[in-house]
Amino acid sequence: MTVGEFENGYWYLDQLKDFGERIGIPAAKKLRKDELEKAIVGCLRTGKIALPTRRSLRKTGVRDLERGLSLKLRIENYTSNRETKGFIVEQARKMAPEVREKSGVWYRLNRWREEQITGGGRPTYGDLVRQYIVLNKMQRFDRVPHGRYVYFMADFLQADKSATRAEAIAAWKELKKLDVPKDYGSWVRVRAMRKGRIDKDTK
């Protein structure tokens, strides 16, 4: 498989985990989808296997929840659950009552937390709450590299205001079968090429 063939395909998480295990990516079952894609692409390009992240993939010791969450508590054994999120939201509302939660904020907050820790920082839950506020105040987020379906749907419906969600889903299913990048621009180009051939054949 070439890098192009892999990137033009659409892979489910279970498929990536199985593939990652077969080619020897360490802890493949514990990696996120974007991390697996990064590791696989790296292997296809260089022939070398490398762990795509420096974050700890094995949690040991007492959870932060059990230590008692507070703004001054250092993040050591974070648990992503309702209780932790509830604490962050509650504290954020105390600091900035006007802030409302945006879609996608937790993914970005988790990546920020990981980057701080793997970069040698020692963030506290207070730092995490303040970053939650910062993210929710942003006008819009940069796109994450692996949100193909979500971004295709958004671009499809934005480009054609009269289109239905069912039509967008049908177009996505069509795109998944094609050997092209999984984005709206590629779908438009394929459709244009097909239309060009049809128009040429009918002349």
The assigned structural class equals: mainly alpha
What's the shape? flat
Question: Which range best describes the helical content: under 10%, 10-25%, 25-40%, 40-55%, 55-70% or over 70%?
Answer: 55-70%
Fraction of residues in β-strands: under 5%
Q: Which regions have little confidence, pLDDT < 50, spanning 5+ residues?
A: none
Distance between the termini: 39 Å
The total of helices stands at: 10
- Oligomeric state: single chain
Mean pLDDT across the residues is 88
Global Rg: 21 Å
Helix-strand topology string? HHHHHHHHHH
In words, what does this structure look like?
By secondary structure, this protein is an all-alpha fold. It is built from ten helices and no strands. Helix 2 crosses helix 3 (33-46), helix 5 crosses helix 7 and helix 8 crosses helix 9 (165-176). It starts with a helix and ends with a helix.
